[in-house]
Structures are given as C-alpha cells and as structure tokens.
Amino acid sequence: MAEQGPPRRGNGIVGVLKEQTSKWERRAPLSPHHCAKLLKTGVKRILIQPCSKRIYRDAIYKDSGCEITNDLSECGLILGVKQPKPETLLPDRSYAFFSHTHKAQPENMPLLDKVLEKRISLFDYELIRDSNVRSVYFGQFAGYAGMIDGLRGLGEWLLSQGYSTPFLSIGSTYMYTSLSVAKQAVLAVGEELKSSGLPPEICPLVFVFTGTGNVSRGAQEILNLLPHEYLDPSRLHELTDRSPSKVPIKGINFKVFGCVVSAEHMVERKTPNSGPFDKHHYYEHPEEYSSIFAKTIAPHASVIVNCMYWEQRFPRLLTNKELLDLRSAGRSRLLVIADITCDKGGSIEFLKKYSSIQNPFFRYSPEDDSTQNDMEGDGILFMAVDCLPTELPRESTKHFGNALFPFLVNLANARKLEDTPAPLHDACIAHEGSLTEMYKYIQKLREATPVQTPRRQERQDININPLSTVVSLSGHLFDQHLINEALDVICSGGGRYRLATWELGQSDDETSRADLEVTAQSKEALSGIVDKLAKIAVQGSITRQGRMEGREDGFEMPQEEACSVRGGSQVLILGAGRMCEPAVKYLTTTGRQFRAKKDSPVGDGSIDERVSVVVASLYIEDAQKVVAGVPNTSAIQLDTSDVAKLEDCVSKANVVISLLPAHLHIPVATACIKFKRHLVTASYVSEAMQALDEKAKEAGVALLCEMGLDPGIDHLMAMKMIDSAHKRGGRVQSFVSYCGGLPAPEAANNPLGYKFSWNPAGAIKAGRNPAIYLQDGQKIEVPGEKLFAAALPVQLRSTPAFALERLPNRDSLIYGDLYGISEEASTIFRATLRYLGFSKIMDALGELGYFDIDPHPLLDSNTPPTYNTILDALLLQIFQNVEESEEKKVGSGDNNSLAHALVALDCCKNDSAAAESAATCIRWLGLDALEPVPKSCRSIFEVLCKRMEEKLTFGPDEKDMVLLHHELDIAIDGSRERHTATLLAFGETGDSSGLKRPESAMARTVGVPVAIAAELLLFGDVKTRGVFRPLTAEIYEPALEILNAMKLPLVEHVEVL
User: Fold this and answer.
1) Distance CA 313, CA 275 (A)
2) How far, in Å, CA of 843 to CA of 851, rounded?
3) What does the alpha-carbon distance between residue 783 and residue 1035 come to, in Å, rounded to a whole number?
4) Where does the record place a coiled coil (predicted)?
5) Are the beta carbons of 146 and 222 closer than 8 angstroms?
6) What is the DSSP pairing of strand 960-972 with strand 778-782?
7) Taking a C-beta distance cutoff of 8 angstroms, is the pair 394, 33 a contact?
8) Can you say whether residue 307 is alpha, beta or left, with left for phi > 0 and alpha for psi between -120 and 50 degrees?
9) 3-state SS of 876-916?
10) Quick one: how far is CA 845 from the chain centroid?
11) Other beta carbons within 10 Å of 195
C-alpha cells in the first residue's frame, strides 16, 4: 500500500538528493550560488542531503542559507541528477531528475511504476525545452572531457612508442579544478608545441572528428587551443602525401591538423552515378550505401575522435577487417581512438569494452583481435569512457542550475500541474498517479510490445494480414511527441496496433524508429487511419509499406523532420563601424554551432556550418571592408528606413546585433519581435525600448541592451562583485565605478592628453550631460554646463603611474536599483576617466563659447572667416562685461596675451596655470590660425569639432587604451573590506605591410561583448526574455570567462580597511 500523509507538493521547500549511482557522480542540480538566489526569490527553504564527494562542500551550501539533512520528508520538490533508488521515493511530491523513462526504456519501468504508485509528479530534465530547444544537455561537456583525456592518452602512448611530446603535460580532465584550468594547461602545451615542435616522424598529426553535434563541437573547442589548421576531408590526402615530387609542408611539426567529417564524407551510394549525396535519402535508406571511411579518411588519421551517433542499420565507420587491411598494407597512421560515443561493437566495430575514468585507456591489437590494459606493445590506444561529463562537475552543475533556475520558483510552489509554465508542463511524465496526456503512449508501448527490448527485430517477423499495413515512423518521435499523436490517430480511427520493431535514440540528437503493424475492420477504416497519419507526417518522417486485400501497395508519405534547420546559423550585424570588426572576428572564429529552433526549416536538428555573419550598412563599401578576407561572412547594402527590406534581413537571421545610433534601434527591435529574433545592442535602454518589454516577452524574444563596455562590461564586473558580496552575507556600503577610453600613455602627446576613436561631437556632448550621484548619503547634482568644473584628480591602486581625473557620469542613482544596493549603499558614484588637466581645458573652451551649437552670424557670410577671427569674436564677447582697466591689463600686446585674456574666464580666475594650459591647447588645435574655416561649419561647436577631428586622431603607430575600475566597500562580520576590479586593455598598431587594420581597445571592448551576447543567445544559454541588461549570472559568468580567455582579464584585489 502506498505511504499516506498530507501532500507536500507546492509547499515551497526544495530538497537536493545525494547522488549514489557512481563514485564519480559529483554533480548537483544546483550550486550554492543558485540556492542563495532561490532563497531570495520565492523558495522558502532548501534541504541538502549531506554528501562528502559533491563538487560543492556541504558547508558552502549551509553558508548559502541551505539546511543539511538526510531527511527530505518536508520537501515538496526534490531534485537529483540521476535516478534515485525506487524504494527511496516519497509520495505526493514533485521530483525532477534524468529518469530515462519517456521512451518506455524497459530497464527503467520499475522506477516509473513506483512513481505512479506514490502519486509523484515526475519532471524529466531531458524534456524541458525553451522555444523547442532542449535546456539541459551535456554533450558539449563530454566533448571537452573526451578530447582532454584523449590528448593525455596520446602523450603517454607516444612516449611508449619512443617519442616525447608536449602532450605528456596534460592530465585527465578530472585532475583539474575547472574547465578553465584544464584549458590553460592545453594552451600551455600549445605554446610549447609552437616553440619546440613535434617529432617529425609522427607528423602530420591529424585529428579526425566524426559528426557535427554538441559532442564534436566541444572536442573541437579543445583542439582549437593548440596551434592548428583545419582541412576539408577532400584535401587530407595532400597532407599525408609522401611521394618524392611532393613539396614538404612548411612548419608541419609545429601545429596539429583537424578534419571534421559528416555522413557525406563517410559513405557513398552502392549504385554508381546516383547523383549528389542526399542526407535525407541516406537516413531513410542506409542499406543503399556503403562506407568509404576506410578508403578516404582512415589512412590519413592519427587520432579518431568519434562523436557521432550510430545505429545498426547504418554502415559502420571502420570494421575489424578494414583496419587490419590498412595495417597490413602499411597505410594506417592511426595511433589513438577517443570513442566518446562509447558504442560497443558499433560504428567502430573493434571497440570491445568500455574504459573508466580511473583507467581510461586500453590497447587494442588488430592482428589477434585482443585488448590489453597496458601500453607496452603494438596496436592502437583506445579511450571509451561512458560518463565523461562527470569529469567536469563544477561546470556541469553551473549549467544545470542556470538551465533550471528560471523554472524552480514556480515548480517549488506549484500545487497543480496547470500552474506550471509550458516547458515544465510538457516535461512532466507522471502526475498524481497517472501518466500525463503527452506521455500516455508509454503505457501503450508497454502493452504493445511482446518482447520488451529496444533492439530491432527483422521485418520478416511481421505478420501482415489482408486488413493491416505497416507504418514505419522515424525521427524525433519522443522528443516531439509524434509517437503519441500517431497512436491517438490509430485508436480514434477504430484501429489497433502492434509494436513490431523498435529502436531508441539514446540522446537528444538521435532519432528513433518504430514499425507499427496497424489493423482495422475494413479497408476504408484502414485507409482513413493512413490518411490521418499522412497529415501529421509533416512533423515526422513516416513511411508505409504493406498490402491491403492481397495487393502490394507500398508508397512513401511526405517527409519532413521536426526541429531542424538547413544552412548555417546567421547573425545579422547592422552598422559597419569600428566596433563591427571585432564582433565579426569573434563570431566567425568560434566555430560553435547551435540547435535549431522550432520554426526552422527541415533538416536533422542541428546546424552543420559555422556561424555566418551578414554585415549590413547604408554604404556597401564599409560593409565590404569589414568582411574582406573573413570566412563565412557577406556584406549587403541596407537602408534601415526601408522597413520592408529591414524586415526581410531580420527574418533571415537568428540573432541581430545593432551597432547603429541609439535612435535607430526601435524599428530594428520591432522587426525582431515580429519575426521572433533576438537583438543585442550596446546602447542604454531608452524609454522607447523599455516600452517594447511586454511585446518582446509575449514573442519569446530577448532584447539585450547595454552590452558594450560602458554600459556593458561594467555591468558584468559590478554584478559579479555585488552578488559575491551578498552571497557571503555582506552589505555594500559604497560603489564607485570609473571608466575611460584614452590614448595609451605614449600616444597622449597633446595638451588635452586625449584623442578620438569615435565622433568628436558625440564625445563632447557626452561631457555636457548633467550628473547626479550619492556621496555619503547626500544626493549631489551637477548641471551639464558645470560638469567639467566638477572634475577631481584620482589615483587608482591598480594603475598608480597614471595621472587621472574623474568626471561624474550621468545618473548614478539608477544603478542602486539596477544593482540591488539602493537600500544599503551610502555612496553610489560613476565617473568618466581622463588624463589630469583635460577637464580644465574643456571647461575653458566651453566658457569661451566653443560648445555653442546655434548658427553663428560670422559663419553665415559668403566669405568664410578665419579661425583667428572666430577666436577674437569669442574673446571680445567675454570682454564686454570686463571693466576698462581690467581690459587694458589683458591687452593683446603681451606675448602671453591669450593666456592673460583667458584669466577673465571664471574657470581660470586665480589659476594662471589653467589659463596657460587652455591657451596652449587653443594654439595647438589651430583655433588661432589665419586660415579660413570650412564652409560646412555653421556653428562655433562645429568649428571646434572640425579642428579636433583633424588634430586629435590616432596615428598609424599609436594605440588607444581602455581603463575600467570598480571599487566596492563591503561591511561583513563586523569589519570593512574594499574590493577592486580593474580591466586595462590596449589597442593594436598597424603592421609594416599596411594590410592589417589595427583593432582599437575601444572597438574590441564594445564589439566582443555584443558578439558574446549574440553567441549566448544563439546557443540558448540566456533564458531571459524581454528588454533587459546583462545583470544576471547566466550572462556575466560565461561572458567574463570568455573575456578573460580573450586577454581582456579582470585584475581583482581585496583590502581590509
């Protein structure tokens, strides 16, 4: 009898199970950081079962506000990673874990029976989808770990063969504290490889990756940390050609080579001259194809990294005989096979057994078809570890928590299934003692299967009677619930079915197949059922063959597999300015791919190509200059005021980056909402943009703004520091942020100590915005015209050699609310950095009248005035209110007359040094020159901008600099700490050839963040929708990690006050 008691479901209390399936299972569904946030956002309590092997210690969970106990009986929601033991399940709760039951897997049916018996609501992580994209997946982690472990094995195997290589320095993935540390180890090996090289006898060292899914992408990402070059499969023979006439490849032993192969490179039609390869035909009729891998790929491979899914109906990648023949003929270079798929006797026929994390390698001898657990003899080294993601428990746990976090407050408090959002509702297999509607097919499959096994039986075993036919279903039957729909069609049509054959895809990327023998009482009823199945065939690949009333009547229904895309994933970048180039470079060199969205065209559920980028500009030449020589890019001319053309471009992209002026973002955002495309900008959130929030949420679209430098990276740094302080129980007493785009010190060679990497007009206007900030509890307001006068010297601990000043930057108070510190911080201050002396000169220019944007009478004449005439007019205007004696005192006859005249300005009174600096700058800019002002200038402000544009630009050998600095004073445990974080980046200079366009620090620190954001949205890593800023861990954690890897690191320091 089932256990009795009041239902706990929906009581707001969450439990986390201790994992007991494997000693290596150190993952958890939530990190302490996630727990702390949940306890602040709607979860009442979190109870953690104690576990000494979990990647995060119990004490850290306790510090985050969790309770450590074995007793989870008070919990309404219980989370695990793998399946718990059936006998430990508590009744009338909600559980979430990988159950492996939704395909009616026979070995897990006892667990499902216990779930039903105890009236449990079972939510399966594998079934949680957002916009039809699976939220929780670990294929990429398997790729990371498999490749790192494979490199370790390669180093040890080569040593046993008498070759010392840098790979010996690499350990297994679990030996590193994090993926980042492991990557650093691989990078270090890459540096050694570049300087010392590899033994020529083993070169070229060629890594062949099979498949293009998440696993393959993860493995390739590790290889990309080494000096490398990728080749198309058709060119592999050129690399290993040893003929006497072959010209040696320069530097072949100072890098490794990669080659990614998919089905089209592995097989060919058995019938000659059958036309080009057709992937859909291959998946439907694999028996018409034979493998050519042993002939075209294997002879050139040093390491095979097997990442592809395989079923017995497909040709094998490599058979025992093929490998033996290659070795006998002296045509095999194969050293290592890293079989991440771990399919025993599968695509690689001679995989005889699995290995383990603690003993990851074994030696295979093709000559006697034997395996040995050593490296002492001849053969091939194998790695076939079947639980690789557990080697990255920290990253896996973060991924788990990030994916689950948006749903957990709802799930913890939902008493009824209908109270949950669609992704959770659709992931619920059982509820209150019954299978949910979407998963009732599980019981039908159990009843329809005489022998419960996922292995396929021979079609000859199927008995076709005169009123029956066989319907073959293939595709994502379970992930897309096509099996459920098909069974309902049969039953509602008065028919019956028998599950004759059955093959289960074991992962999200894999398709499943089922042959259903359908019977009916009449020909008309059977035909009606088949017709209805044909109507749902647009959601799955369905074929029918059989006979009715003795007549052979095989035919193929329309085929279109759900959830798939043809062609590459596309990012549309609007605007071809300097920020565009780093964004394009980042997106086209990552080589990452993403799972297709629900509304995509047909295909296999994943994208084979790298990310492609389309750069659109009003001036096609600008866009062409950006994409010149960059693979997977194209340039188009686009006037964004042409709404029809703008919408056409947006509709073809997956994510849009707008680098246009801020006022042009709104029509772009509107088009993105219409076509359900995500948008990234570096601009502040305007009122007009914020007004689109609800529409964006309804459309499931992310409009991510303020993702540049400032705003952008400053948000990422701030929230990382603030969240960390709050997690430790601290209170932020003071938040101070400085940011400046400056010339590098050696390029600050003018009186202002400043040069422009963007429009001078925009930079000057930004310096005239009013500001407000909080200082020791007091609100301080600075009018725009007084902003330069409010500048004060500042010296940063991280850059003591820089003489700097800071100017208040706009409204600092809003950041108290944005960052969640308005109730605790008495100081909230954001400022712009300039070199010392800049503001006094700019203040003098402003008071003199050079910031006047109104048309000036002198500039309205047919004869343009000289710059000196304009200066004299401005000086005369100042002297109109000066007494005659004072006017004589500052007469023009003195050699320092200009400096003396400027003393009349309020900003220069009693400060002769400031007047002299301003006079020096005026002369240096040529504002006293006798040459005529260009006719295009209509205001004094335009005169100043024209001169600054001519004089304050970077030379070809000069670099800019970006300096971003945060200071947080934190009160914690009765003491005060000062936490600082600094980002210092320098731009590039042009090379001697003049072919390379230098990349400025400002362009890189704006262009790269928007590209990172686009990438995170492409791959489903960001779940937030609507209009928002990058203030959450789902963005700042991966973004800061990527910036660090791209040599844009934060330097952090903690000081006890």
Assistant:
1) 22
2) 10
3) 35
4) none
5) no
6) unpaired
7) no
8) alpha
9) HHHHCCCCHHHHHHCCCCCCCHHHHHHCCCHHHCCCHHHHH
10) 46
11) 9
| C-alpha distances out from residue 846 to 754, 804, 811, 849, 902, Å | 16, 21, 22, 5, 12
> Under the phi-then-psi rule, with left for phi > 0, alpha for psi from -120 to 50, and beta for the rest, what region is 169?
alpha
Cα–Cα dist 409/44, whole Å? 9
DSSP character at residue 939: B
Residue pair 146/305 in contact (Cβ under 8 Å)? The answer is yes
CB 307 within 8 A of CB 215: yes
- Distance, CA of 847 to CA of 905 (rounded, Å): 7
- Which own/partner contact pairs does 176-182 have at CB distance under 8 Å and 24+ positions apart? 177/394, 178/394, 178/395, 179/144, 179/392, 179/394, 179/395, 180/1041, 180/1044, 180/1045, 182/144, 182/148
pLDDT of the residue at 795: 87
**Radius of gyration over every alpha carbon of the chain, rounded to an integer in angstroms:** 34
Q: What is the pLDDT of residues 690-706, one digit of tens each?
A: 999 999 999 999 999 99
What does DSSP assign to residue 21?
A: S
Residue type, 401: G
1005-1044 as b/e: b if 16+ CB within 10 A? bbbbbbbbbbbbbbbbbbbbbbbbbbbbbbbbbbbbbbbe
Rounded distance between C-alpha atoms, residue 827 and residue 734, angstroms:
5
Q: Are 223 and 303 in contact (CB under 8 A)?
A: no
What lies within 8 Å, CB to CB, of 105 at 6+ separation is 454, 504
Contact 668, 650 (CB under 8 A): yes
Nearest in space to 213 (alpha carbons), one of 473, 583, 504, 564: 564
Three-state DSSP class for residue 439: helix
User: How many separate helices (H) and strands (E) can be counted in the chain?
Assistant: 33, 42
List, in order, residues 6 or more apart from 851 with CB less than 8 Å away.
Answer: 764, 768, 845, 940, 941, 944
Strand, helix or coil for residue 16: strand
Closest CA to 824 of 969, 612, 705: 969
710 is known as an active-site residue: yes
552 Cβ neighbours under 8 A, 6+ residues apart: none
- Choice among 92, 710, 969, 1021 that is catalytic: 710
Given a contact cutoff of 8 angstroms between Cβ atoms, the answer to whether 1000 and 960 are in contact is yes
CA distances for 544 relative to 23, 495, 528, 726, 818, angstroms: 47, 16, 13, 61, 59
Mean pLDDT across the chain: 83
Q: What one-character DSSP code corresponds to residue 87?
A: G
The pTM for the full model equals 0.51
Cβ neighbours, 10 Å, residue 465: 11
List, for residues 780-838, the tens digit of each pLDDT value. 999 988 899 999 999 888 788 889 999 999 999 999 999 999 999 999 999 999 999 99
Q: State the greatest distance between any 2 C-alpha atoms of the chain, in Å, as a whole number.
A: 122
Question: How many other CB atoms are there within 10 angstroms of residue 421's CB atom?
Answer: 13
Distance CA 303, CA 150 (A): 9
One-letter amino acid at 686 equals S
Q: What is the pLDDT of residues 930-963, one digit of tens each?
A: 888 988 888 999 999 888 888 888 887 888 999 9
| Joined tokens for residue 963 | 């300096």
d(CA 901, CA 895): 11
Report the SS3 class of residue 970.
Answer: strand
Beta strand pairing call for 731-743 and 827-835: parallel
Give, in degrees to the nearest 5, the angle at Cα 264 between 263 and 270.
100
Residue 342: the pLDDT is 82
What letter represents residue 293's amino acid? F
Q: CA–CA distance from 914 to each of 666, 742, 794, 848 (Å)?
A: 44, 21, 18, 14
